[in-house]
Amino acid sequence: MTEEELMASAYGAPSLRPLSKSTMFLYDKCSASDFKLFKGNAFEWITIETLIFSMLLLTMLFYMIKSRFSKVGIDNSNQFEPMRLSLVVKQIVHQIRKNIEAEPKDAKKRYVDNEKRILVENIQLKIKLSERAFDEIKSNKEIDPKDAPNWLRKCLVGKLTKA
Question: How far apart are CA 21 and CA 28, in angstroms?
Answer without folding.
Answer: 12
